[in-house]
Amino acid sequence: MARRPSERTLQAYHDGELGFFARRRVARQVAASPEAREALEGLALVGELVRESQATAVGPDLWAEIARELPPRPAGASDSGRASLAEALSGLFRPVGAGALAVAAAAAVIFLLSSREPAGGVDVVQYLDPGDNSVMLLQGPDDATIIWVMEPVATDTSSRESRAII
Amino acid sequence: MRSSKLTAPLAGFVALAAAVLLARPAFAENVTVTVIVSHASQEKGPMEQPNLLPPGFNFQSHRVLQRETLNLAMGQEAQLTLPNGKAVKLRPTSIQGDHLMMHVEVEGATRSDLRMRNGKRVTIRHPQPYQNGNLLVHLEARF
Question: What ipTM, to 2 d.p.?
Answer without folding.
Answer: 0.79
